[in-house]
C-alpha cells in the first residue's frame, strides 16, 4: 500500500510574508494522519524549512537541475535544495514542460539527480485537452511515465502525480471514472515495470483543481493516494480540509 500524501505546489507565489500561512498550514495539519508536503518557490525553501523544522510537514522544491553544480546560471541543483532543508522536489510539471521545453528525458535526468541527492521526486505527467479528445490519454501518460522515471526507483523516493493539463487552474475536473481509469492504468504500469512491491508502494497523486469541496470524492477513487494541490494549497483554510479528507479516505 502506498502512503497517503497531501502535497501543495505554491508555484511562483509567495514572499517571506507567506511563511505565516505556512505556519498555519503546519499547525492545521499537525495531527492529520497523512504525509504533508509544501513546495514554495525556491527563494523560500530555506526559510520554509526553518519555519517547519518542528512540524511533521515537509518542504520541497518545484524543480532542480540534473547536474550537481556548474555553469548553469539561474538554476538550482537537487543538492542545493537538500542543503536548504528540502525533502522533496516536484519534477516535470506541465508548466515546466511547456514554459521550459522539458522532455521526458530531461525529467528522468532530474529525477535521478534528485534521488542521488536524497530528495523524494514528485514526477508529474498528464495529457492536454487535445490529446484527451483524440482518445490518446493512456498512450500519452503511459509514455510520459515510462520516459520520465529512471530504473531502480523505490516507493520512498518516488511519487507520481497525474495532472491533466486542462484541469490545472481551470476549475475543470475529470469525471471520477476518468481519474480512476488513468490511476488504475498507471498503477498497472508501475507494477509491470518495477514489480508488485515497489509498484504498489509509489504514491499516485491526482492534481488539477482539487478543492475542499471535491477532495473527498476524488480520494475515494481507486489508486488515488493523495493530491498535488495548486491554488488551494496557498491557504490553510483550503489546504487543511483537503488533507483531512485524505486522512478520512
Ligand atoms: O498544477 C497543479 C499542482 O501542481 C494544480 O493546480 P490547481 O490546483 O491550482 O489547479
From TrEMBL:
Question: So where does substrate get bound?
Answer: 9-11, 169, 209, 230-231
What protein name does the entry list?
A: Triosephosphate isomerase
Q: What does this protein do?
A: Involved in the gluconeogenesis. Catalyzes stereospecifically the conversion of dihydroxyacetone phosphate (DHAP) to D-glyceraldehyde-3-phosphate (G3P).
HAMAP family in the record: TIM_B (MF_00147_B)
UniProt GO BP: gluconeogenesis; glyceraldehyde-3-phosphate biosynthetic process; glycerol catabolic process; glycolytic process
User: What is this protein's gene name?
Assistant: tpiA
Family of this protein: Belongs to the triosephosphate isomerase family.
The EC number on file is 5.3.1.1
- Which pathway is it part of? Carbohydrate degradation; glycolysis; D-glyceraldehyde 3-phosphate from glycerone phosphate: step 1/1; Carbohydrate biosynthesis; gluconeogenesis; Carbohydrate metabolism; erythritol degradation
Where the protein is mainly located, per its record?
A: cytoplasm
Amino acid at each position: 500500500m502506498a502512503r497517503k500524501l497531501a502535497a501543495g505546489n505554491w508555484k511562483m507565489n509567495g514572499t517571506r510574508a507567506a511563511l505565516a500561512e505556512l505556519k498555519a498550514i503546519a499547525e492545521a495539519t499537525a495531527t492529520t494522519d497523512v504525509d504533508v508536503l509544501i513546495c514554495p518557490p525556491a527563494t523560500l525553501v530555506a526559510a520554509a524549512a526553518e519555519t517547519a523544522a518542528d512540524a511533521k510537514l515537509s518542504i520541497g522544491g518545484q524543480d532542480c537541475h540534473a547536474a550537481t553544480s556548474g555553469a548553469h546560471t539561474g538554476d538550482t541543483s537537487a543538492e542545493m535544495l537538500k542543503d536548504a532543508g528540502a525533502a522533496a522536489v516536484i519534477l516535470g510539471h506541465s508548466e515546466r514542460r511547456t514554459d521550459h521545453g522539458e522532455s521526458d528525458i530531461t525529467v528522468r535526468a532530474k529525477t535521478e539527480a534528485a534521488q542521488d541527492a536524497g530528495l523524494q521526486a514528485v514526477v508529474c505527467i498528464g495529457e492536454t485537452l487535445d490529446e484527451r479528445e483524440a482518445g490518446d490519454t493512456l498512450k500519452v501518460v503511459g509514455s510520459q511515465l515510462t520516459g520520465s522515471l529512471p530504473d531502480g526507483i523505490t516507493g520512498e523516493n518516488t511519487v507520481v502525480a497525474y495532472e491533466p493539463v486542462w484541469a490545472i487552474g481551470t476549475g475543470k475536473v475529470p469525471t471520477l471514472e476518468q481519474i480512476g481509469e488513468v490511476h488504475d492504468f498507471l498503477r498497472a504500469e508501475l507494477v509491470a515495470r518495477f514489480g508488485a512491491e515497489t509498484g504498489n508502494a509509489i504514491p499516485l497523486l491526482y492534481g488539477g483543481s482539487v478543492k475542499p469541496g471535491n477532495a473527498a470524492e476524488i480520494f475515494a477513487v481507486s489508486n488515488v493516494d493523495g493530491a498535488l494541490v495548486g491554488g488551494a494549497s496557498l491557504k490553510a483554510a483550503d489546504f487543511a480540509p483537503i488533507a483531512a479528507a485524505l486522512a478520512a479516505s
